[in-house]
Design a protein that fits this description.
The complex is a heterodimer.
Chain A: H1 4-17, H2 19-22, E1 31-36, H3 39-43, H4 46-60, E2 65-70, E3 82-85, E4 89-91, H5 99-109, E5 118-119, E6 125-126, H6 133-136, H7 154-159, H8 164-172, H9 175-185, H10 197-206, E7 213-218, H11 227-234, H12 236-250, E8 254-260, H13 264-279, E9 295-301, H14 310-317, E10 341-345, H15 346-358, H16 360-364, E11 374-381, E12 387-392, H17 397-404, E13 414-419, E14 426-428, H18 438-443, E15 452-457, H19 462-476, H20 482-499, H21 505-521, H22 525-529, H23 532-540, H24 542-551, H25 577-581, E16 587-588, E17 596-597, H26 607-611
Helix pairs in contact in A: 8-12, 8-15, 9-10, 9-12, 11-13, 12-15, 19-20, 20-21, 21-23
Chain B: H1 4-12, E1 19-21, E2 28-30, H2 47-51, H3 63-71, E3 76-81, H4 102-112, E4 116-119, H5 120-141, E5 147-148, H6 153-162, H7 176-191, E6 199-205, H8 209-214, E7 220-221, E8 224-225, E9 229-232, H9 233-242, H10 264-267, H11 274-288, E10 306-313, E11 316-324, H12 326-338, E12 345-349, H13 366-371, H14 374-388, H15 398-408, H16 414-420
Parallel strand pairs in B: 3-4, 3-6, 5-12, 6-9, 11-12
Antiparallel strand pairs in B: 1-2, 7-8, 10-11
Helix pairs in contact in B: 5-7, 5-11
Classes of the chains: A alpha/beta, B alpha/beta.
């Protein structure tokens, strides 16, 4: 394929065929069974479900049913997920053996399989995907195609306006017009720092140099983050298209996608997508008959977190040890092999095509004054609906945690949420109503980060949390600059001291001082943000640190050395359940006697606390 | 972890034997997979040590071996000092850069208890005799030109590892101190009735690679090692300090004869272009049979990375090149490999500036190196030794004439080959 006419033809024809995917009242006899094949569902056997469906359909000779492999639907906690279109029935936690029943009952007899329906937060069973509260407050731009199309079929992407933005850019727009549109839309980098994307494109375009490069940063390393992975798995072409648009805008002919080797499915789908795009002539020479050439290569990361930092990523692409360069010069001036290089994150790219198609005004109408558009979050931790959510900027944390996330499990209380992974900070209860955007998160001592959002209930010890993140940064520090290499290790040692009950008040002072200095003196984002979890937990939970240091007590019992479990004699009804469950026979007392714990034998496993029906132990 | 050593190895010397390994807190400077330096492409030039601001890198010390032998009455301990040591040793005792401390150095060595103190410059004269003879022969026969020098062990190891197929271009001459060690343990031992097995030959060198060279299998004659121990200029200074000798108050002394007589040509061996200049002085007279009027070859002097010159000898024009620093050596070798090199004679020294800036020399901090022309000052001192010499051509050294006449025969012939020449091994497995 070479011309835009051919592209349009595919779109129109295919769109009719796929109308039922988006239109519940579509006039069709066909049914599409969509099976999630994201990483989460894949790990709970969704490929087998897909196979089973195909096998059964073949056996029964059904001709009007198609089984389609899709990307992530978002509600990963309820996976594997199967959706049947056009009626939009949402089946959750489907097992391979359920396929027979779904085909028999739903497809053949037209009866919904009640037992596989998903329960909403209030306990009612919901039939349709759109009726779930999880989806109600979301607005899907970056994830528009995830869970709708087959990511391994370029035609399906084209059917839903794929590569139309590229065609428009190449035929109708000049480089400056493209950059102006992106600039006006107010889109900011989704990788964490939030640098205005249009400005970055402009700088790279204006930089001197004959050869320029476009790089996609898909080295998503934050623990608990999986936004970029889901986009690559569910809609890889959107990234390719945006990279081509970026290449046109800045004057580059070559793009690199730097993706983690730990994302095998994403890598596989990217490879397929690139191959298909090349076959269609959408990648390669003289795209759509214009003089614009562009090609994309994949580079695999070898597992270093710091390679998500743009200059370390460039070093890695060049084949060297992944460690950051000193900035300036910024990559826009001197990046890959010393050439001006544009680096954007996957999620940033996935917004581009739609901004071009729907206009800057449309995009800038979403969000807050300084942060436009939507943001994808990987919601995880102590929350009912673990999964991928995309919300407009300015949505409050409370809405995300309680409305979309369905609140905290087991009736526990919200304690804090960590945004931005090991580089971000925690947000305590009192800031639950802060609208989420770049500025307000920074104000309360956290950061947007790439979009990991980990919710913690009141059983979590904040000193342990800081320790956990420091452990991560210590093992991921590249070792280039001294503050990060040695400083983070020393901070971790102090935190370990606090957790083991050997800390003093002076340690807290040292910790704070060290944190401030590391933040100031490190050369890259990793070191500069590594102390954030400590600084923010100290800001909001200083009392807990003091308890660890002075009173030698960890109220949450997470720090085993500091936990002291006792039985409240007034509440104890001498039922003996705790005694029965104690693995070390540390609980003494017989018959109707009130039980008490022998502290010498107790290993603080907290089994007794969980087994007591009267909440007498704590 | 400032990585100046890494930068020196990678960017200045173009070797890249060391880099950062491991990650984060465990990261450290080491070789590929933490192999021994011997098993990687390190040339032992020691420039990393010179660049280290904290003293985290240092040579393998041989001081204790030397002390032990000095104390042992059974051994006849002989020491020789390289041309570059005398212009730098004073710096360790607070003297100006480029101070010539030959007299004090000899005096200190005698005070330390060495039985004889000889001058490697005499060995350098031997090298010139052999090398110039070899060159004249190869030039006349057009055999494997260009011929390159082989006095620098760092360069030899570099060539063995990186250009094994071009090893035939190297001169087969041993380096001056190895030649001299062989002469001491043969001619000198015989003449003075000393058992060569009881001679312990120590070399004081500005070089780390000399330690490696002295341990090479080829560096022996009939099972007798040419040189037993090599210490650097820094190590000698340390020994003098250990012995509580007040260096600056020492009276000047002279080298022991008969092996302490040397020419001006040998004196400039330690500076880049020096070997070339000394060889040209002798080659000129060997080829033309006439006396050379102007001894200075200015075109091969100076600190330019690669110096190219063409020298008129009789009716022939000889093209020569001088490279110092291994990155420049690589450029020359690439030319030789591609067949684009039209030179006849090439001098290579592994350290930028030559031996005077060797890896065993006193360490100058970065501020000094930025503000003072260390190489220039040390070189100046060497050239002034040459100028003040009465004999300035190696082949005119009377001791050499005597030894060749009495013991060796003609340069480049049988006995000379046994004592003064060596061979090289291909070490292809180290090539990156």
């Amino acid at each position: 394929m070479k011309t835009i006419e051919e592209l349009n033809k595919i779109r129109v024809e295919k769109r009719v065929e796929l109308d039922l995917r988006k239109n519940t009242n579509a006039d069709t006899r066909e049914k599409h069974i969509l099976v999630c094949n994201g990483t989460g569902c894949t790990s709970s056997k969704s490929p087998l479900i897909l196979e089973n469906f195909k096998k059964i359909i073949k056996e029964k000779g059904l001709t009007n049913v198609r089984v389609i492999k899709t990307g992530c639907f978002g509600l990963c906690a309820k996976g594997p997920i199967v959706i049947i279109r056009p009626e939009d029935t949402f089946y959750a936690m489907v097992k391979p053996e359920d396929c027979e029943e779904i085909i028999e009952s739903h497809i053949i007899q037209g009866k919904v399989v009640e037992r596989l329906l998903c329960k909403d937060i209030d306990g009612t069973k919901v039939t349709k995907l759109d009726d779930l509260t999880f989806y109600k407050k979301q607005k899907r731009i970056a994830l528009k195609n995830c869970g709708v199309i087959n990511p391994e079929d370029i035609d399906e992407y084209i059917a839903f306006d794929g590569y139309r933005a590229l065609a428009r850019v190449l035929i109708e727009m000049s480089q400056d017009e493209v950059i102006e549109t992106i600039d006006k839309s107010g889109l900011r980098g989704r990788g964490g720092a939030g640098f205005p994307t249009g400005k970055k494109w402009k700088l790279t375009k204006e930089a001197k140099g004959e050869t320029k490069y476009v790089v996609c940063n898909a080295d998503e390393g934050d623990p608990g983050a999986f936004m970029d992975r889901s986009i690559l798995e569910g809609d890889p072409h959107s990234v390719l298209e945006a990279m081509e648009i970026a290449g046109f805008a800045i004057g580059a002919n070559k793009g690199y996608i730097y993706v983690r080797a730990e994302y095998p499915i994403a890598v596989q789908r990217l490879k397929i997508a690139i191959e298909q795009a090349r076959k269609y002539g959408i990648l390669g020479k003289n795209i759509f008959g214009t003089s614009f050439d562009f090609d994309i290569e994949i580079r695999l990361g070898a597992g270093a977190f710091v390679c998500g930092e743009e200059t370390a990523l460039l070093e890695s692409i060049e084949g060297r040890r992944g460690q950051p360069r000193v900035k300036p010069p910024y990559p826009a001036e001197s990046g890959l092999w010393g050439c001006p290089t544009l680096i954007n994150n996957v999620e940033t790219y996935s917004n581009i095509a739609q901004i071009i198609l729907k206009g800057a005004e449309w995009y800038s109408s979403i969000g807050t004054a300084t942060s436009k558009g939507t943001k994808v979050f990987a919601l995880g931790g102590n929350v009912n609906n673990v999964g991928l959510v995309e919300v407009p900027m300015g949505t409050t944390l409370r809405e995300i945690v309680y409305d979309i996330g369905g609140g905290i499990p087991n009736g526990r209380d919200f304690k804090a949420a960590q945004t931005g992974g090991p580089s971000g900070g925690c947000i305590p209860k009192e800031h639950l109503d802060t609208p989420i955007d770049y500025e307000s998160l920074k104000e309360i001592g956290s950061m947007m980060g790439s979009g990991g959002l980990i919710v913690m209930d009141d059983t979590k010890c904040m000193v342990c949390l800081a320790k956990f993140y420091l452990e991560f940064t210590v093992s991921e520090s590249c070792g280039k600059c001294t503050p990060c290499r040695i400083g983070t290790k020393r901070m971790l040692e102090i935190l370990e001291k606090l957790c083991s009950g050997e800390g003093t008040e002076y340690d807290i002072y040292r910790l704070e001082k060290l944190a401030v200095n590391i933040k100031k003196a490190s050369i890259c984002g990793l070191g500069q943000s590594a102390p954030n979890p400590v600084i923010s937990t100290l800001k909001y939970f200083r009392e807990e640190f003091r308890q660890h240091a002075i009173e030698k007590e960890c109220k949450t019992m997470e720090c085993k050395a500091l936990a002291k479990i006792e039985i409240n004699e007034e509440k104890c009804k001498a039922c003996g359940l705790c005694q029965k469950n104690c693995p070390t026979n540390a609980i003494e007392g017989e018959g109707r006697e009130k039980r008490h714990i022998n502290q010498d034998k107790c290993i603080k496993c907290t089994t007794c606390i969980r087994s007591c029906p009267f909440q007498a132990i704590g | 972890m400032c990585r100046r050593c890494v930068a020196t190895c990678k960017n200045v010397q173009n070797i890249g034997a060391i880099d950062c390994i491991e990650r984060g807190f465990d990261s450290c400077i080491s070789t590929t997979y933490d192999h021994s330096l011997n098993d990687v492409n390190c040339t032992f030039c020691g420039q990393c040590i010179e660049s280290c601001p904290t003293g985290a890198l240092h040579e393998k010390e041989n001081i204790n071996d030397v002390w032990a032998k000095l104390k042992d009455p059974d051994y006849f301990v002989v020491v020789q000092t390289a041309p570059s040591v005398r212009v730098a040793l004073g710096e360790e005792f607070g003297m100006e850069i480029g101070t010539n401390v030959t007299g004090k150095m000899v005096s200190a060595l005698k005070n330390l208890g060495f039985d004889k103190v000889f001058d490697t410059n005499t060995g350098a004269d031997f090298t010139i005799m052999e090398e110039a003879t070899e060159f004249v022969k190869r030039f006349k026969e057009n055999d494997n030109l260009p011929m390159t020098t082989s006095c620098c062990p760092g360069w030899v190891r570099f060539a063995e590892m990186e250009y094994p197929e071009n090893l035939s271009h190297l001169s087969s001459c041993k380096s001056p101190h190895q030649m001299f060690g062989a002469i001491i343990k043969s001619y000198y031992a015989e003449k003075n009735n000393i058992d060569p097995n009881k001679i312990y030959a120590v070399s004081v060198m500005p070089c780390i690679a000399k330690k490696y060279e002295a341990k090479r299998d080829e560096m022996e004659v009939n099972g007798i090692r040419d040189v037993d121990a090599v210490i650097t200029t820094r190590e000698l200074a340390r020994m003098i300090k250990q012995a509580n000798i007040e260096f600056d108050k020492l009276e000047d002394d002279t080298f022991d004869n008969p092996m302490g007589e040397a020419t001006g040509a040998a004196a400039i061996f330690g500076v880049t272009g020096g070997v070339m200049e000394a060889a040209l002085r002798t080659a000129y007279e060997l080829i033309t049979g006439e006396e050379l009027k102007k001894l200075e070859f200015e075109s091969v002097r100076g600190t330019k990375g690669i110096k190219k010159a063409s020298v008129q000898i009789g009716d022939k024009e000889i093209k020569v090149a001088v490279a110092h620093g291994l990155s420049n050596a690589r450029k020359i070798m690439e030319e030789i490999k591609n067949g684009t090199a039209d030179y006849s004679f090439v001098e290579v020294m592994a350290c930028p500036g030559g031996c005077i800036m060797g890896g065993g020399q006193p360490i100058k901090n970065s501020k000094t190196r930025m503000t003072v022309d260390v190489a220039g000052k040390r070189a100046e001192a060497m050239y002034s030794i040459d100028e003040r010499s009465t004999i300035r051509k190696s082949h005119e050294n009377p001791i050499l004439k005597e030894i060749y006449k009495e013991y060796i025969g003609n340069p480049g012939e049988h006995k000379a080959h046994e004592l003064l020449h060596t061979h090289y091994n291909e070490m292809e497995e180290y090539r990156i």
